Amino acid sequence: MAELHITLVKSANGAKPNHRKTVKALGLNKMRKTVVKQDTPTIRGMVRSISHLVDVQEK
Questions:
Q1: Is a pLDDT exceeding 90 seen at residue 1?
Q2: 5, 10, 13, 25: which sits with the fewest CB atoms below 10 Å from its CB?
C-alpha cells in the first residue's frame, strides 16, 4: 500500500475548529513537520478537508 507524506505548510491558528482538530488528529503540531500515513480513504478525506494547510506527497 502507498504512503502519504503530509507536511504542515501553513499554520492552523486562524482556521476553523474542525480543521484544527483534523491537523492535530493527523499528528501535525508544528510548522514544517512531516508525518507518514498509509494511503486510505479516511486519511485522504482528512487531507482533502485541510488541503489549503498541508502539502502531500505520495510515495
A1: no
A2: 13
